[in-house]
Amino acid sequence: MNKKVLIAYYSWSGHTAKLAQLLQQVTGGTLYEIKVGADVFSSDMYATSDIATKQRAEQALPELVGALPDVSQYATVLIGGPVWSGDLATPVLKFVQQVTPVAGVLAPFYTDAGTVGDYEAAFAKAAAQPVQPGLGTNGSGTLAQVQAWWRRFE
């Protein structure tokens, strides 16, 4: 039985990268960083929020850099990113649109600075397939949070 886990993530500030690394530690999964060009977003959180809002409004999501992983090779696909204005970060949205549907288990994980909105519903809508309950953390999360969440998949 295939038990391989893919942990795909986009991290603007580093919090989601730390959460992805905790997930890798717990699951033994493969990390895949979702990347965009260096000039796509600002280093300023508010300017980045404005850029992402414009991308959504114009349906002009950022191009992803690098080859996409073959999700068919994984039994579980975890996709993570920061919550931007209660929604998926636009690189995560683009990635979800490009790799779904997946044949195995699909679940989101996400980091926020206070406003989650309806992130999991937005993720499920973008994926257009059944999605397992996600792992949301304020900041990078803790090993205990990740372990408790992962137990439902074992």
From TrEMBL:
Residues 5-154 form the Flavodoxin-like domain. Coiled coil: none annotated. It comes from Lactiplantibacillus pentosus. The lineage of its organism: Bacteria, Bacillati, Bacillota, Bacilli, Lactobacillales. InterPro entries: Flavodoxin/NO_synth (IPR008254), Flavoprotein-like_sf (IPR029039). This is Flavodoxin. It comes from the Bacteria. Pfam families: Flavodoxin_4. PROSITE patterns: FLAVODOXIN_LIKE. GO terms for molecular function: oxidoreductase activity, acting on NAD(P)H.
